[in-house]
Structure formats: structure tokens, C-alpha cells
Amino acid sequence: MRYKLAAAFMTMAIASPVFAEDAVCYNCPPQWADWASMLEAIDKEIDIQMPHDNKNSGQTLSQLLAEKDNPIADVAYYGVTTGIKAGNEGVATAYKPTGFDEIPEGLKDPDGKWFAIHYGTLGFFVNVDALGGAEVPQCFADLTKPEYRGMVGYLDPSSAFVGYAGAVAANIAFGGDLGNFDPAIKYFNDLAANDPIVPKQTSYARVVSGEIPILFDYDFNAYRGKYEEDGNFEFVLPCEGSVRVPYVMSLVNNGPHPELGKRVLDFILSDKGQAIWTNAYLQPARPVELPAEVAAKFLPASDYARAVAVDYAEMEKAQAGFGERYLSEVK
Questions:
Q1: Please, are residues 217 and 224 in contact by the beta-carbon 8 Å criterion?
Q2: I need a labelling partner for 212 at 20 to 30 A (CA). Which of 69, 175, 224, 255 fits?
Q3: How far apart are CA 233 and CA 314, in angstroms?
């Protein structure tokens, strides 16, 4: 009996992907926002190893809630509305990393239960070579045209935050607001007639391969494709307008390695950490000017003037209701 217990313990230990001194981040996918470079820097600069994790925001929150009494993660990354919810649900705890005071008001919980680490602007990530000769679409309205049938993708807005951000952008583009999502529901039903592709998780590689020629996505992913991949890629900020959205992080409440988690968050908000995001075409949360060589690769400021900020707390309150409407009303 003693041998069987020892063998079982050894099997469990071997199966575990995390060592005692590692930290765990939920939703740190290497193909999203260049988390690959950030994880490498965390390993090199502060000697903490964090495994890749390909959850989306909704899956991250669900996992944190399921593990609330025995957390596995130390830190978590998600869209701002999910971060607000994590704080409200008690799975994120208060912590103010170095540099916290420089994050603008409205983009952090006053107690530090969540805080922005970088920004993205929602638009279209387009693989021009996969359009089959069709013009690069310039507007949300273009995507319902027959020439884009089967070419348009967006992440499931009832689960993935970027999918919900795309819904908010389309909703505002067609005259809605955070209290009225009727325009978004109509738009997604119109789009449904054009056979869209609706994955649940980040789909950068599927755009690069041409499987999804047009994806509702952030500028930073599109610029990464444009400047770092073989192929012809573009970022389009829709003619009707769009939204600029922060992504946030939290220290997990009662996580197994809180001191490691705090060191990770300190590094991410440090000058060196924030600079890594700019290399990935992201606007840093702290007011750091983009390097000139990076800024030159963005669309002109006149285009970005069409991207607006919203009341992110109200956006969070509306998220669940919109997700339910999307699942029940979009066919």
C-alpha cells in the first residue's frame, strides 16, 4: 500500500507542468500581444518562469472561480471588463505594483484589484493575399457584402473579450450605446448570413495562414503580421469608427506564490516591461511615448481619432446581458 501511494505521488509530480519556483499566469498566450517576448524577458530579467497559457478572458475567469478555494494561478491577464468582474467576484486581490500611480484614473481599480498594462484599438486584421482579388474592406458595413462570404472571422463575443470589444465597436458604429445593443444584434445577424468564422480563442495563426482572411482584432496583432510575417497584411480602422480598449492584470487572491506574482507585475509595469509592449505595437498603460520607429508603423493619428474610449465599468455591466442576447438571438 505504501509503495502504491508513493508511486501515485511520483506520477502526479511528474505530470505537473509547474515547478515549485515557477509562477502561473492564466491567459498569457505567446501569439497574443507578443506575450512570448514578455515571458522570455520575465525569465531572463527576474528569473521567474511562467508556462504559456492559451485561455481567453472568459475561460480565465471561469477557471479562477472554479479554483477559488484552491487557486493554481498567481496572476491573470484579461480584457478590462473581465478584470473588473474578477475583482468584484473576489478572485483578484489588491496589489499596487511599482508604477501603479502613473496609470490614468479610470484604467485601474483604486485598490489595485486590476490595472491596465497596455492598450489596443479594435479593427480588421486583413490577409490581403487571401481575399481572392476582393478589395480590402474599409467599413463594418462592407463585411456583409457577398464578396466577403466565408472570409470574415470574429471571436465568440459571449466568451472572448476581444469578441465583445468588437461587438461594442460595431454597436457604436451603427448608433447603439452601452444601454442599447440592438444595432449590434442586427449587425451580427446580417453578418451571419455571410457565413462568418467564429472561433473561441485567439486566431492570429489562422489569419497568417489565410484560413481567416479578415478578423475582428486589435491593431497590435495586425501590425505584427504586417511587419514581421511573410505575406501581405493590413490593419483597417473601420470608417464608422471603433473603440480603444485596455487589457489588465491582477494578482490572484490566495495564489500559491504571491511574492513571485508581485515581482512579475512589478516587472510588467516597469520601464523595461512597458517597453516590451511597444515593440509589439501596443500602447503602454503608463504614459510612455512610443519610439519614433514604432510610431511610424501605425496608421496616422487622423485615423485613430475615430477610435473612442468608453465607460469600461458600464461596459462590464453590459457584457453578460449582451452575451446572453448574442447566444439567443444571433442565428
A1: no
A2: 175
A3: 34
Q: What is the pLDDT of residues 40-89, one digit of tens each?
A: 999 999 999 999 999 989 999 999 999 999 999 999 999 999 999 999 99
Radius of gyration of the chain (CA): 20
C-alpha cell at 117: 498594462
Does some domain include residue 155? yes
Q: Which residues contact 182 (CB under 8 A, 6 or more apart)?
A: 176
Number of domains composing the chain: 2
Residue in this structure with the C-alpha cell 502613473, named with its chain if needed? 102
Domain check: are 189 and 265 in the same one? no
pTM of the full predicted structure? 0.79
CATH value at residue 292: 3.40.190.10
Other beta carbons within 10 Å of 52? 12
| Cα(165)–Cα(169) distance, integer angstroms | 6
Q: Whose grid coordinates read 445593443?
A: 181
For residue 278, is pLDDT > 80?
A: yes
Cell numbers at 299, concatenated: 496608421
DSSP at 224: H
Q: Strands 233-236, 115-127: parallel, antiparallel or unpaired by DSSP?
A: antiparallel
